[in-house]
């Protein structure tokens, strides 16, 4: 089940937090609760992505994106992701999450997020996100105009991921014979 109460708590905790610049990093703190674990008593990989949602929602709140999007009838959706898991997060571990917008290209917004236990990064995700309206995808040119901002150049590793994703076949597999 989606952690609606946790989401409401995060929004409430950060509702009066200082506004962030478009490319600043939002930092939040979380606990790995029993409902987050798998059979190995560590943070479930699917729940990890759900917790990253909580960081993005508040990031968008703190940079003012939620208000801009709501006023225009826009929404957001994840259009792709790549995640690395490097260290275990066990039940009751406290983690720090860092969320930031890395930039965008003509079609998509790229969000970089990571989880930390102390000085150790446990996981990192790159998300490709689309801004949507009832008419379909909103161009990033429209988003730039709404925010009066330009994207910084995307880091080489993000550009390489975009290029690799463009090579992936779609649909991914033929139907079995």
TrEMBL record:
Enumerate the Pfam families for this protein: 4HBT_2
Q: Native species of this protein?
A: Palleronia aestuarii
The family database entries (InterPro entries) matched by this protein are listed as: HotDog_dom_sf, THEM6_lcsJ_thioesterase
Q: What is this protein called?
A: Acyl-CoA thioesterase FadM
